[in-house]
Description:
The chain is α/β, with parallel strands linked by helices. It contains 12 helices and 19 strands.
Amino acid sequence: MPDFPGILKPVLVGILGALLLVSVLSSWDITVRALDFTLSLGILGWGYTELAIPPLGTIRAKTHQTPLKFGISLKDINLERLKTMIAMEPEGIYSELVASFRSQISLYLARILGLAFLGGLGSGFILFRRLKQSLLAGLAGLIVFALLIGASIYTYNEQAFREPEFKGIVEAAPWLLGVADNALAEVEKLEDKLKVIATNLTRMFESLSLVGGEETLFEGELKILHVSDIHNNPLGVSLATQTAAAFKANIIIDTGDATDFGTPIEGELVRNISESGFPWVFVPGNHDSPGVVQVLKELENITVLEAGVATFEEWDLTIAGIADPAAGGAAMRVPSREEYKAAAAQLQNIISQSERKPSIIIAHHLFIVEEFSQWPVALLHGHSHMVNIRHLGQAVLIDAGTTGGAGIRGLMSTEQIPYTMVLLHMKRQGEGWQATAADIITINQRNAGFILERKLLAQPMELQAEDSEESPGG
């Protein structure tokens, strides 16, 4: 007759040993092409599968009917492997990733069963020192986990993620996804409207040149489109490109904050600037990390001014600029006033040693460019997300606002944040260029309304000479 008390004891010991070893050693790192994950198994998870996406938070759903909890955490995204994978195998990537992930999940579950057997075997040997009872304990641990995993697979319901629970930043995901769906649906409409409106406005200004004798005011001019603070919004780049084409701009100047967090992935997102076809001058802002700047440097049509002077021989135009002090690191911060003054002093030293003096000086923050107000130049900056054009000393100070509608923050704001940019008209003056007019272009994202306002910045040179005694410095 079987000795049930003698069998029950090693069975319980084996189950406890299996639970202990699996709890301690359940974490396992896997690689699915360019994605690195950590898999884990919790004993008292009450039927949940949990997806962790650091630092955004976790998404979980009640997927099965056993007390086990399956955990999947995104550990890393290898951008080099990702670029290689996309370049070599653009088709069938998703199905291959799923197949690879499922096969590694199978290996992981087999590993868990092995740990369960070893945990039971080891605990049985420690307590009983007998092979038969140790094997019985190991077998008990293996059978219990085999039943738990089998029941989990049998009752597993992937559709449970249609009603997930969110923790962390991703708690805003349901609302944000709704906003994103609506925004994407309007992007194409807004772009089409912009093409028509921009073309019509161009014709309007051409016709106005025939009225009131203004036909010579902008003859032989240079047109510069000033954009800023795109903040990962691809529509901002598209709008800038279409506007530059419609108004026949010669060059685009971008005063920074192309991204939000400065991560390598965001750097990949801004590569569409290369599709604009326009010379694009970029000065890094406080949201642009060294990684993002490096990506932009790789684009053929972009000139990145981290601290220097660039001359475009086609128009004999010289531009000076310096990066925001915060762009030297990955942390998003607003530097102190002293840091901005030091950056301005550095740029002044660079300009003083340059053979050509700039007609335009650019930086992301006002505190840098305002140090050049005693110079008769155009000072371009961003950061505030509000368009502003004014004279400061001998200079004209221009803030393009936010060409990306403040990015994700614009979507989350209850108040409408428009897309803005400035078309700067410049006329030859001696060896440089003088800003003569600026067109403020404002696009309201909710109703696709378009406002254009022209501001005259300077009088013709002969009038300035007559008034020079009354208005020293212009």
